Amino acid sequence: MLLVHQFNYPTTILYGAGAVAGFAERLCAAPAATYLVVTDPGLVAAGIANRVCDALVASGVAFSLFSDVHGNPVEADVRAGVDSYRAANAAGIIAVGGGSAMDVAKVIAVAATHDGPLSKFDDAKGGDELITNPLPPVYAIPTTAGTGSEVGRSAVIIAEDTGVKTVIFHPTMLPRIAVLDPELSVGLPRWVTAATGMDAFAHCVETYFAKGFHPMADAIALGGMEIVIAHLPRVCDEPADLDSRGHMLLAASMGATAFQKGLGVIHSLAHPLSTRYGIHHGLANALLMPPVFRWQLETKRDQFSDDLLARYGRVARLFDSPAAAALVPDLIARLCARVGIDQTLPQLGLAEADIDALAAEAFADPCHASNPIAMTEADMAAAYRACL
């Protein structure tokens, strides 16, 4: 039988300083409708969400604001958002913020058109097949450069009945337009810039290592890593550098565009850390990569193909380093330190007593299915212990 591969890159991206105004003009030119703007209270307090709202007002676009989104969003956020969506009689949703706001916006679109609970849409259990009704359009305006959710078909929400992070996926959840305006990311705390930037790097590097055939994703992932290595330290040192902020927004979108190929064990290990300890997802990825990649290289070397070793070597070369696979964990650790990420997971809560429960949850997470090294639940526990 002929093997046919499918690659998808359909999102319209508006990029550059002032792109929000151009987006508002596009909505104004569309048939009249009211939109629900989904954001978080921090962005409202910082005035960033208001800048988007001002652009909508200037273009005559009707909207209602919903800002009750948690940093690690929960099902209650979605339910409240659905109530606001229906109260406004909205026809579309505009997400403004980081991954949390974008995830909630996407799942509001699902929950407004389908009966819950959200756990039944768990992608790991085939929940995508239950998303059958048309979804309202979602538009995404990221204010952080990390998750790349603005070009993604999935969202992660802590389901109420299970208490775990649940991946909900469907092609129609993909935002119609992503607005990458670097002016909106100026003013972020340095640690947020650093953690979200390392999240973008994690997406790219795990995609590049992931098993499967996707040369387009591989090339985009390499380009995304190159951008992060060059521009994340610069933007951490010079927060008002719009060129570097813009490049980081591009790297984030590139990472999420690429990871349609798949991710890996880092993300499966990171999700329970956010659920149990409230650790920022990007920070969890950053702190996991060096010890877990090192653990795989030291304990699973017999499972490394020649191709995988070559890929590690190519990542090392992106850092202007010799192409040695064994150097990659230290090179990533140095990048983390360079941008001010110097915590350890034990300092943030990781404890030996929790590892068995964390490992069970990580093993149930679907991201490690595309990890190039097969992982058992015992391996998950060993990988956590490598971080102690």
Radius of gyration of CA atoms, rounded to a whole number: 20 Å
**CATH T-level fold name of the largest domain:** Dehydroquinate synthase-like, alpha domain
Strand sequence of the main sheet, in spatial order? 1-8-5-4-2-3
Q: How many helices does DSSP assign?
A: 14
CATH class wording of the largest domain: Mainly Alpha
Helix content: 40-55%
Shape field: globular
Descriptive account of the structure:
Strand 6 and strand 7 form a beta hairpin. Helices cover 48% and strands 10% of the residues. The chain has 14 helices and 8 strands. The protein is an alpha/beta fold and 388 residues long. The model has no long low-confidence stretch (mean pLDDT 93). A 6-stranded parallel β-sheet has the order 1-8-5-4-2-3, sandwiched between helices. Strands 6-7 form a two-stranded antiparallel ribbon. It is globular. Helix 7 packs antiparallel against helix 8, helix 10 packs antiparallel against helix 12 and helix 13 packs across helix 14. It folds into 2 domains: 174 residues, Rossmann fold (3-Layer(aba) Sandwich); 196 residues, Dehydroquinate synthase-like, alpha domain, CATH 1.20.1090.10.
